[in-house]
Input
Amino acid sequence: MPDVQALVNDFVNKLKKRKIEGSQATARHTAELLRSVISQQRIPYTNQAGALVDAVKAVGEQLIAANSVELAVGNIVRRVLHIIREEDLSLTAAAIGDVNISPVSDDDEDEIGRDRPVLSAAAVAAASRSTLRPPSLQTLLEEVPNNAAVHHSSSSGGDSEGKSRSADKSSRSRKLKHDVIEAVNELIQDISTCHEQIAEQAVEHIHQNEVILTLGRSRTVMEFLCAAKEKKRSFRVFVAEGAPRYQGHVLAKELVARGLQTTVITDSAVFAMISRVNMVIVGAHAVMANGGLIAPVGLNMVALAAQRHAVPFVVVAGSHKLCPLYPHNPEVLLNELKSPSDLLDFGEFSDCLDFGSGNGEPLLHVVNPTFDYVPPKLVSLFITDTGGHNPSYMYRLIADYYSADDLVVQGKQAAQK
Output
């Protein structure tokens, strides 16, 4: 069994050195690491869910600090925390509900119901919340057997009862860990198959003889377009090249290899060509709680062009890209500057140094941002692996995905101020 801390340190180094690219790969690796953390975490008899939450939080803080631009890391950490709380709530409800759940006939139900307490949803939730709190002194004392107060004649019965309680708690801790791991496995599966789930909706949005515009390279977009092609839809795709990395050239080759009619245009030609376009379909790096996008640089220009010509602007993104933070949150890094070598050769750059000033300061500066921010008012529709959603619905969708995370509430309160 590999050492968990060694796995964490290795993943942190990869994030710092940008060796893992793409939200999907980052999200999958994060979920797999947290699964290893949970599987090797020793759970105490008391506050079992709290122990798992603390372990995941400790690792999550290291991962988020390693690369704050990759918001998918924080998204998966919050999602796993939500899973732990939900599974603990489910086990607590099942344990409390055992009082009322039994195979009885309709004739005996009224008579038995008089002797058994009826538990409300509030009582179940309160019991679940108590399991997440640190153990109190009274709780700890209750776990210690008081041998002095027990007569010798009843010692065997007390030991038997204590062993039974210990076995029950051990069984519940194993059940909690097992259920959490199973839920994380489902999360990893959802991350791996999100492209296929989104692509299944393509035929509902792309129609015959339409012209689709996209920018850069997105695997989700490519699978979405190819799925419509496989459903016998005939359409043309305009691909903006996405300078300076020209990922659009790679996407165009992939689309042509799949049999789609493709036209490559320069980024500056978007406004000139948008009048011929029926729909813009793009991917995103992250979807914020207000419905705004952190997306490849140049996409805000495309969104403005689409709004000017009343062209639908559609965003396809997996659920792992839904972020419960707002763009004005201080912990959100909206951009990252890449190497100037993508725009200008170092040899040409050295020719622009001002050697006469004595300090060698360059007269030419190169700025190479990675992302754009697209406000929600420019987005027409979000298509995720759970279906199509209006931008105004994104907050509720994200709140359901991370319903136990306080950051959603804090972000909403900050937005209302």
In short: The chain has 16 helices and ten strands. Confidence is low (pLDDT under 50) at residues 101-106, 111-124, 133-154, 404-417. The two ends are 50 Å apart (CA to CA). Residues 155-199 form the longest helix (45 residues).
